[in-house]
Amino acid sequence: QVQLVESGGGLVQAGGSLRLSCAASGSIFSINAMGWYRQAPGKERELVAAITLGGTTNYADSVKGRFTISRDNAKNTVYLQMNSLKPEDTAVYYCNVAYLSERRARILIDYWGQGTQVTVSS
User: Within its chain, how far is the Cα of 68 from the centroid?
Assistant: First the structure.
């Protein structure tokens, strides 16, 4: 079993900052990638940022230059530093992890956190 603990969401004014964290634990052999997605009311879920095992990062065009994704040395926690927040960033943010449960596993497992609300007021 795998658990994802997300934290750091909240209410901020435009121009402010928040730092999201997601810690993975449980039956994990290795984590291939971790990332953050978001979903606003009436909108489809979209990729915000992701980071691979090797440290390669990918960002949505709308957050480039404002958000930074990183992970700790143990590769079990991912962070999303969000600066210069805009009302358009308001959404539920979901942590996602792609991992192997054991050495003999043939397929990466995709697992989602419960989501954390980020609200940016004007």
Answer: 10
